[in-house]
Amino acid sequence: MASSAAARPSGSRKPLLALAAVLAAAPLALANNYTYEVAILVGLNALACVGLNLLIGYAGQISLGHAAFFGLGAYGSALLASRYGWPTLVSLPTAVAAVGLLAWAIGRPILRLKGHYLAMATLGFGIIVSIVLSIEDGITGGPDGMPVPPLKIAAWTLAGERTWYWLIAAALLAAVWLARNLVDSPHGRALRALHGSETAAAALGVDAARHKLFVFVLSALFAATAGALAAHYSGFITPASASFLRSIELVTMVVFGGMASTFGAIVGAAVLTTLPQLLTVLKEYEMVVLGAVLMATMIFMPRGIVPTLASALGPTLEKAFAATRGKRF
Amino acid sequence: MLTQTLLSGLTAGAIYALVALGFAIIYNASQVINFAQGEFVMIGGMTAAALVEAGVPLPLSIVISIAAATAVGLLLAKLAIEPARGASVVTLIIITIGASILLRGLATLVWDKKIHRLPAFSGETPIVLGGAAGSATLLPQVLWVLGAGAAAVALLTWFFRRTLAGKAILAVSYNPLAAELMGISVRRTLAASFALSAALGALAGVLIAPIAFTSWDSGVMLGLKGFAAAILGGLGSAAGAVAGGLALGLVEALGAGYVSSAYKDVFAFLIILAALVFLPDGLLGRRAAERV
Q1: Alpha-carbon distance values, A162 to A28, A270, B2, B58 (Å)
Q2: Backbone dihedral region of B31: left (phi > 0), alpha (psi from -120 to 50 degrees) or beta?
Q3: Which residue from A124, A190, A278, A297 has the fewest beta carbons nearer than 10 Å?
Q4: In chain B, which residues have their Cβ closer than 8 Å to the Cβ of A136?
Q5: In this complex, do B277 and A200 lie within 8 Å of one another by their Cβ atoms?
Q6: Does the beta-carbon distance from B89 to A299 stay under 8 Å?
Q7: Would you say B224 and B271 are in contact if contact means Cβ atoms under 8 Å apart?
């Protein structure tokens, strides 16, 4: 196992380079501010989903409350910057770190739970956070939300869709690099062993509790970063960003794109962020079509889009790839 | 005050118990957590309210609305869950989430986005109770909720203990393969469990609609509370589902009455978190062992 991982580094960098190329080329297809805005939303969701996929896809632990981390990152950075006048460059990492600490404190007791019980615990935590955010209106502005100061680096204010696009693209690339490195590390193998069977992994000397907690905190950090960036980008946040439906949306993106596939998480985020935008033309039929698409995809591609397409097209692609290689040499 | 609070807690608890029973029945038959359970409640309430508004007599409306939800449950099992058998549990959960979005969307198309109300089954005149804890008033509908809830639980117990169909469902929940070998159709059991859960959900929806109103999205929170109640009682345990539902309703009512009404929904989920941390298998759940 170790030798195959060691032999792979040059190969495993290719997908990352491909993603960088796609992110760099995408602006060519983005005609106006609206399309940039959609691309930024895709990037923010993808950032959260790459982290959530580590938890769900690799470690096999479900979370139905991840929007809480997204929302707390957003509100945390917004409140530190607007109420206490912190520079956003300090408020953002502070809020993200605080969310990480919270995830650690919550994760320690609840990650002992399994399956549906863990689902319920994370769901409960998420709902509590979203309700507190809407009730404590003295601090958070309540259900109507609150304005968020823009992101500032020294005297330079980050503004405009194009600037934000590059920031989010860089953040996403860094997140994917981190996630892929983690998956290929001994830590990642321990996580996959846990996914297979926690008891068997523990018998082989894997410290299940420590590994699960680590990846839970890491995924919370990803979500909080995405949330804080989203808040500073849009300049406004509401408790809806931390709601149960939003948590469900994040899990759906991961499963839809394909669990245990970092690029699946990105594809899932891209499809399910743009789909509602496209479906707005359907007006009152929007929800019906969204629900039907979701059901049909999961019924016919239960492993998600990317793994299903990869195994269907894999041989064809490999052949084509081998052909081009043959020509070159 | 206390009597009043306990009564309203029991009322909500009875509704949660019915929804939780639906979760337990489907979970036992298929290991699926059906996130569209709340939508069955909504379909029950909305169909009955729409029919009554159209001039159909109340009892007939109730029967039709439960039948309609049962049909939706059957369709969900046949068209969505059965073709996806063998998929991972998370995939199945996402399918039911897709179904819940679809059903909410259909509800806005078939009806509208307004809030509807079903007339109370036997009038609105409150019954005044005198007791040691002071006088309390009671809506006649509360008696309907408690009575019909208790009747449904009794009927279910009889169904699972005394009828062949009920025993077949139980057999599948213990061991699908062994049940199949004994000639029980696992597919029909799956369909039956969805139909039964949908009927229970619709019954809850019809019972609560005169008190809490109904709208296209009224199933979301009820579904989550039902799931919480099922987990609190120990997933898959019918007695646990009823106990969990009642406990959740009472905790919520006491919290709302004596601590803060704004945080009503928070109490329910705090209790769940506490219970999960200290009693990881629920109030009446059996301790699960993992097979390696």
Answers
A1: 12, 18, 60, 59
A2: left
A3: A278
A4: none
A5: no
A6: no
A7: no
Contact B269 A259 (CB under 8 A): no
Nearest 10 degrees: Cα torsion B270, B276, B282, B288: 160
A305 neighbourhood in chain B, CB within 8 Å: none
Would the CB atoms of A291 and B83 count as touching at under 8 Å? no
Listed in order, strand segments (DSSP E) in chain B are 127-129, 136-138
* The model's pTM: 0.87
- How many Cβ atoms sit within 10 Å of the Cβ of residue A79? 19
Give pLDDT, residue B32. 87
State the Cα–Cα distance between residues B176 and A204, nearest whole angstrom.
31
Q: CA B35, CA B89: separation in Å to the nearest integer?
A: 12
ipTM of this predicted structure:
0.86
End-to-end CA distance of chain A: 30
A50 Cα distance to chain centroid: 4
Q: Which residue in A61, A295, A297, A303 has the most chain B C-beta atoms within 10 A of its own C-beta, making it the best mutation to test that interface?
A: A295
Given B86, B266, B292, which is nearest A131 (Cβ)?
B266
- The answer to whether A183 and A58 are in contact (CB under 8 A) is yes
Label residues B53-67 b or e (16+ Cβ within 10 Å = b): eeeeebeebbeebbe
Question: Which residues of B fall within a CB distance of 8 Å from A282?
Answer: none
Closest C-alpha among B225, B216, B249, B235 to residue B279: B235
Residue of A nearest to B268 (CA): A124
H helical segments located in B77-185: 89-110, 140-162, 164-174, 176-181
Question: Is residue B127 helix, strand or coil?
Answer: strand
What number is the average pLDDT over the span A37-58? 94
The pLDDT, as a whole number, for residue B132 is 56
Q: Hey, what's the torsion of the CAs at B152, B71, B161, B36, to 10 degrees? A: -70
Q: Is A114 on the interface with B (CB under 8 A)?
A: yes
Encoded amino acid at A311, one letter: S
B31 vs B45: CA distance, rounded Å: 27
E-strand ranges in chain A read 146-147, 152-153, 156-157, 236-237
Of A14-18, B70-74, B157-161, which one has max mean pLDDT? Answer: B70-74
Q: Which two tokens stand for residue B244?
A: 């969990």
